[in-house]
Structures are given as structure tokens and as C-alpha cells.
Amino acid sequence: PFEHQWSPVRSTQCYDRSERYLFWNEPLTIALLTLMSITISLTCLTAALFLKNLETPLVQASGGKLNLFALFTLMLLCLSCCLYIGKPSNNLCMTQQIVYALCLNGCFSTFFIKSLEITLVTEFPRCAPTFLHWVTQRRAWLLVALCLLTECLFCSCYLHLGPDYLVSDYTSLPTEVLLVCNTKSWFAFGLMHGYNGCLAFVCFLCTFMVQTSGKKYNIARGITFAILIYFIIWIFFIAIFATLKTVLRSVTQIGTILTTSLGILGTYYIPKCYIILLKP
Asked: What is the pTM of this model?
């Protein structure tokens, strides 16, 4: 048979291969979309609660309006799961990685600013009055913009060096042609996602040694756990993603996005919601 056809054993008749990708009506897809809806709902409810209590000391101490921006980027990150469902194309393969990198960077840039502030106050109290205005109020938004701009530069490198592209795989499945996104330049891929990893690592270094007295709420601990979960998920993701050749690649990517979002929500934002609602 030709490449686009298959034939049963000891048969002289050939059949056309059907296309295989993650369909919208599959039970697994419906389960993932349900989880996505739950995550988005949680994010929106958290954002609404933070907006309502914007002037409270806890919300101000944990970043104020920066929290709303971070939650907005988390919501966009969850919505990007839809890019992995349905028939893929070259443009879709390229968009998947860029959207993931930019949305995650938007969230991590707010953690980065908070981590710098915590480090200045706890480790360098003498320098704190001089530099604190760079990581608080309006100038904090400049740093967020700078982080996003740097990520945009890495994204343009990724587009220039070789974005992900669509591959028709005829060997993995006996009767179907598997449509998957393939990485053209691992260097460009590494640059784009590695920058977020570096940002996360700096946040981790700045926050994991911070000590506060038992009666005070430790904001640094939330960032430490959120980053730790992100790294654990990425170790599993790389190990699984490198070996998979089926539609489960898309499932793995969606799972990574949702578990990262839920991890950040569960470790950094939901404990604050608990304090606002039950221990004001």
C-alpha cells in the first residue's frame, strides 16, 4: 500500500488511513475541558475576592493590583488548553508554545517582583529604603513590562530559528495517520521556556530561606511552594513528552497547563482567600 493507505494481513485490498488527533467529543477531552472550566472558575472567583478586598493589608502585602494581573494571565493560560484540541496546523503548533510562555511569564514576573521585595526587606534592610520603590507601586509595573518584553524577544528568536510545525506520522499507528506538532529547534524552545525557568529559580532562591515569627503570615512560603510545584510538574512533563508519540502528547500538555495553574492557585492564592474569608 501507499503511505496514506493501510492493508489488513494477507489482504489484497487497501484502505485510506483516517486522521488521528485529539477530538473535541472524546471522553478524555470532555474530562479535561471540565477540569479547565473548574480551574478558570476558581481563578475568576479568587480575582473577584481580591478585587473586593484590594485595600486590605493582606492583598496589598501580597502585591495589590499585580495579583489581578497574575490571575488574568493564569486564566488566559487555562484557556490556551483549547489550542491543543482539534485538528492541528502549523500556525496552531506555533501559537501553542508562544501563548504558554507569555502567560506563564506574566504570572512569574509578579512573583519575581514580590520575591525581590521580600529579599530586600529581610536580607538587605540597610539598602531596602533606597531600592524598595523599584519593586513597589507604579515602578513594579515597569519591571513586569520588562520581563514580558524579554520573553517577547525570546519568542521572536523562536519564530526566527524555527517554530513548532505539523507532522503527519504514518508509522506510529497501524491504520491511522497521526497529526502531531514537532519541535524544529530545541535550542529556541529551550530559550523561550528556559527564561521562565530562570525567573522561577530566582524567585525560589529569594524566598525559600525567609523566616518569619510564628504569629506572622509568611508570604514568601506561598511563592516557594508554587515554584516547587512548577519544577516538579516540568520534570514529569519533559520525561513523558520526550517519549510519547500519540495523541497523549496533547493530553500531557493540557495536563501540564492545568496542574501548573492549580498548583499556583492552591499554594499562593487560595490560602490568602482562606485568610480573607475566615481569618480577616
From this structure: 0.90
